[in-house]
Amino acid sequence: PRRYSDYPDAFMSWNIISSIGSLISLMSIMMFIFILWESLISNRQIIFNENMISSIEWLQKFPPMEHSYTELPILIKF
User: Fold this and answer.
1) d(Cα 31, Cα 21) in Å, to the nearest integer?
2) Isomerase: present as a keyword of the record (predicted)?
């Protein structure tokens, strides 16, 4: 390179803080990529089901008409 950036020695502490911050960011990105990779290749069972039948709209096969539920009905499981 033709130009070098030269900072005064008074900014050395800020340079060290910036370098440490960049290393923390690099390690967190690497850990995030590892977690994504590990979650994609593992064959774990689902613990929490997002399709819980806790309201009547989940029992219908088609979307309900607009304004069909002014208030939620009570569900009773026999």
Assistant:
1) 15
2) no
Residue pair 56/73 in contact by the 8 Å Cβ criterion: yes
Residues 6-33 have pLDDT tens digits of: 788 898 999 999 999 999 999 999 999 9
Q: What is the model's pTM? A: 0.52
Retrieve residue 6's tokens. Answer: 């030269």
DSSP string, the chain: --------GGGHHHHHHHHHHHHHHHHHHHHHHHHHHHHHH--PPPSS-S----SGGGT-SSPPPTT--SSPPPP---
CA–CA distance, 28 with 1 (Å, rounded to integer):
31
